[in-house]
Automatic annotation (TrEMBL):
GO molecular function terms attached to this record: iron ion binding; oxidoreductase activity
Keyword Oxidoreductase tagged: yes
Sequence ranges assigned to domain Aldehyde oxidase/xanthine dehydrogenase a/b hammerhead in this UniProt record: 48-162
Residues annotated as signal peptide: none
SMART domains in the record: Ald_Xan_dh_C
Swiss-Prot/TrEMBL keywords: Molybdenum, Oxidoreductase
InterPro entries with a match to the protein in the record: Ald_Oxase/Xan_DH_a/b, Ald_Oxase/Xan_DH_a/b_sf, Ald_Oxase/xanthine_DH-like, AldOxase/xan_DH_MoCoBD1, AldOxase/xan_DH_MoCoBD2, AldOxase/xan_DH_Mopterin-bd_sf
Official protein name in the record: Xanthine dehydrogenase family protein molybdopterin-binding subunit
Gene3D superfamilies xrefs: Aldehyde oxidase/xanthine dehydrogenase, a/b hammerhead, Aldehyde oxidase/xanthine dehydrogenase, molybdopterin binding domain
Top-level taxon of origin: Bacteria
Length: 764
């Protein structure tokens, strides 16, 4: 059912070396590797068990770590008895605040260029407790089982202090405006409240979304070893260079003394950054003088790794009789800990989704004593589009306008709150194509009117949207051998999304080499660049760096080719990579193979390293990925059970690099969105701040029986202002999905549920 059509990236302006832009000018003449369905090159290794994950590195004298956690939200450790744990079989040592080495707090994510810490608290440095679930002791033993058992023997008593673990109480104590990306999460254009009172039709409703915990299939883990003052960390990471720099700051050593690798990651979703476990593992390794493997249990991830914070959102929309929006209000409160950097920024999508005369957008933060919250797939947009897109559905229903049409009607011609032109926005096409394919015309606009036996059936839709980012810090090294093999190296990440495969395709196409002549090295902090696999921007970062390095490589090759070459006199921007060599763009008959150029120059290999150009495209354009999401839901009239029977995502995300891995990313995002819509909820005991369902038995994520066949299509229209014509696709799938589900449930039942997850009790 993968209906993405192959790329047709021809006829674009040939400014090949501009600000990271533009498809390969020779794309028409090649096999067209980019865009095709190449299977993941790491796939065979994974299914054969040959891919070594963070917790699988073997070290001489390896010890195993287990943690004990606090059971109060705030206060002091009064007594800490580790004698039974120390006497248990196989125990090497027990580390607590009493014997841990001195360390600085982690540099908090986003507060410095390479900061990666999920919190900035002292780590096992004193008797203070800051959240319920904070690690208070680490046991090292000869086996994991011995460590796990001994950690259960650690006995602590606590002196609790007054804490804020109740959201109402936190709000009562006062809120402040959230900050994100260097600015306040607050925006007012015109007088939206006044406009709302003057329009003929309006909606003003409250939406809420719960706390969510990260559940990557691979729990967080690291294998750690010291060699003198040099620290080696085999991590599961989406930020290897950031992690290395941050650990060097924690331990007071030079950045060059920390080496972080992360060749395989079993899912990240924003959580595979630096948390206390890597620091504790390294500290314990230092103390024991032995390598350490620290693997968080599933419960450990819930206790120590932050998730998505809860939100309470007000969305008010005012429109004229034709459905044109006059006022958009999106305000509300999120919970946040004292020690973290992310107030769930639920207004981000609303800033650019629709045209309107007046806007009032505001995220306020209520502080709580709890685990630091953090990034989770489309932080902001995933839950913000739930409020916005449900409200728009309510407005459409009130006006008697088709929900697809009201979105198209309010399509802006430039960014509605920033005024910048769109680099590439073809969402109307995505809506039309999607509606056609989904059979939207068959939807009955009257809620509760389609029934098959016990099942009420409805259709709903919503817009998905996520920004294009490209962070500075991209750099790549290309090593080209005379035999026509190219190795690209970049400190990037493969978390299962297909990065290594897609960028092997990009490199092979750019250099004019077959795919099996390209290797892509990544996941190692010693490689060039400081790239984050986050914000759906890694591909753009990598691509810009590869294009820059390719340009440098061609420049060197032309110098080596000299006057004896058919390419003599050509500038780097006048040649392309084709059939294992360089070719003149203006005359494909003028060419010379890499082997020939390097052979005449007496070179076996050429190594180039280049930085990506700064992301100037972001200054000039408003850039986003878009999706038109369609859902068919069946709700059991007797039990209230909701089943999703069909889902379609119709995407406008620029040029697609690999149809197979892209389809998987889209589907994965949508599946996570189905979880957000129907089941995910961290149960937080508001009396003491304890997470009560720290396991996949009690915290539900979609299983196979919850997921229908998901159809994904895309328009594949290249953005002329991005490195490969591509936009990010890692996070777009989860945006809009929950609203599409809730809107389908409304169409099926006539019941409007504004509080996620949409469990059956809310439909009875
Ligand atoms: Mo994503 S939440 O930027 O890994």
């Amino acid at each position: 059912s993968n209906a993405g059509h192959p790329g047709t990236a021809v006829g674009l302006a040939a400014n090949q070396w501009g600000q990271g832009d533009n498809p390969d000018p020779l794309i028409r003449h090649k096999h067209g590797l980019v865009g095709t369905s190449v299977s993941r090159i790491d796939g065979p290794l994974k299914v054969q068990g040959k891919a070594t994950f963070a917790a699988e590195f073997v070290k001489e004298g390896l010890t195993y770590a287990a943690l004990a956690f606090s059971t109060i939200a705030k206060g002091r450790i009064e007594t800490l008895d580790t004698s039974a744990a120390e006497a248990a079989p196989g125990v090497v040592l027990v580390m607590t605040y009493k014997n841990a080495p001195r360390m600085k707090p982690m540099p908090l994510f986003m507060t410095a260029e390479k900061a990666a810490g999920g919190d900035n608290l002292p780590i096992m440095q004193d008797d203070r407790v800051h959240w319920n679930g904070q690690p208070i002791a680490l046991v090292l033993a000869e086996t994991q089982e011995q460590a796990d058992f001994a950690s259960s023997l650690v006995h602590a008593t606590f002196k609790a202090e007054p804490s804020v673990t109740n959201f109402k109480e936190a709000k009562r104590r006062g809120t402040k405006t959230g900050e994100f990306g260097g600015g306040p999460l607050k925006l007012e254009i015109g007088d939206a409240e006044a406009a709302l009172t003057q329009v003929p039709v309006s909606i003003d409703a409250q939406y809420s979304t719960p706390r969510h915990s990260h559940n990557a299939i691979e729990p967080h883990a690291a294998t750690v070893a010291w060699d003198g003052d040099a620290l080696l960390v085999h991590d599961a990471s989406q930020a290897v260079v950031h992690t290395a720099w941050s650990l060097s700051s924690v331990f007071g050593i030079d950045e060059s003394q920390v080496h972080v690798t992360s060749p395989y990651v079993g899912g990240g979703f924003g959580s595979k950054t630096l948390w206390q476990h890597q620091v504790l593992g390294a500290a314990a390794s230092k103390l024991a003088g032995r390598p350490v493997r620290i693997t968080l249990s599933r419960e450990g991830v819930y206790r120590m790794v932050g998730g998505r914070s809860q939100t309470e959102q007000r969305v008010a929309l005012g429109a004229d009789k034709d459905g044109r929006l006059k006022a958009i209000i999106h305000t509300g409160v999120v919970a946040m800990s004292h020690q973290n950097a992310l107030p769930e920024p639920f207004i981000l999508a609303t800033r650019g989704a629709y045209a309107a005369d007046a806007f009032k957008l505001h995220v306020e933060v209520a502080q709580m004593d709890m685990l630091a919250n953090t990034f989770m797939r489309a932080p902001g947009e995933a839950v913000g589009t739930f409020g916005l897109e449900c409200a728009l559905d309510e407005l459409a229903d009130k006006l008697g306008i088709d929900p697809v049409e009201i979105r198209i009607l309010n399509e802006p011609d430039k960014h509605p709150t920033e005024g910048k032109p769109f680099s590439s926005r073809n969402i109307v096409e995505a809506w039309r194509t999607g509606a056609q394919r989904f059979g939207w015309a068959k939807r009955n606009a009257k809620p509760g009117s389609v029934r098959q036996g016990e099942w009420l059936i409805g259709m709903g839709c919503a817009t998905g949207t996520y920004p294009y980012y490209r962070m500075p810090g991209g750099a790549a090294r290309i090593t080209l051998r005379k035999d026509g093999h190219a190795r690209v190296e970049i400190a990037a990440h493969e978390m299962g999304m297909g990065t290594a495969t897609a960028h092997s395709q990009v490199t092979a196409d750019r250099l004019g080499l077959p795919l099996d002549q390209v290797t892509f090295g990544y996941g190692d902090s010693k490689m060039p660049g400081a790239v984050l696999a986050g914000g759906s921007q890694q591909s753009a970062s990598i691509g810009a760096a590869i294009v820059a390095a390719q340009h440098a490589l061609f420049a060197q090759l032309l110098i080596l080719a000299g006057n004896a070459s058919p390419l003599a006199g050509l500038r780097p921007e006048e040649v392309g990579g084709f059939n294992g060599g360089l070719v003149a763009l203006a005359d494909l008959a003028r060419s010379e193979s890499y082997a020939s150029i390097m052979g005449r120059a007496g070179r076996d290999e050429i190594v180039v390293q280049e930085d990506a150009p700064p992301p100037m495209e972001l200054q000039n354009w408003s850039m986003h990925s878009y999706g038109a999401m369609f859902c068919e839901a069946r709700v059991n009239a007797v039990t209230g059970e909701t089943r999703i029977s069909r889902f379609l995502g119709s995407f406008d995300c620029g040029r697609i690099l690999n149809a197979k891995t892209a389809a998987s990313q889209f589907r994965g995002g949508i599946i996570m969105g189905l979880g957000l819509a129907l089941m995910e909820e961290t149960q937080f005991d508001e009396r003491n701040g304890r997470i009560m369902n720290p396991s996949l038995a009690e915290y539900h994520v979609p299983a196979h029986m919850d997921v229908p066949e998901i159809d994904v299509i895309w328009n594949d229209i290249p953005d002329p202002h991005t490195p490969m014509g591509a936009h990010g696709i890692g996070e777009i799938g989860i945006t809009g999905t929950a609203a599409a589900v809730a809107n389908a449930v409304f169409n099926a039942t006539g019941k409007r549920v504004r509080d996620l997850p949409l469990t059956l009790d809310k439909l009875m």
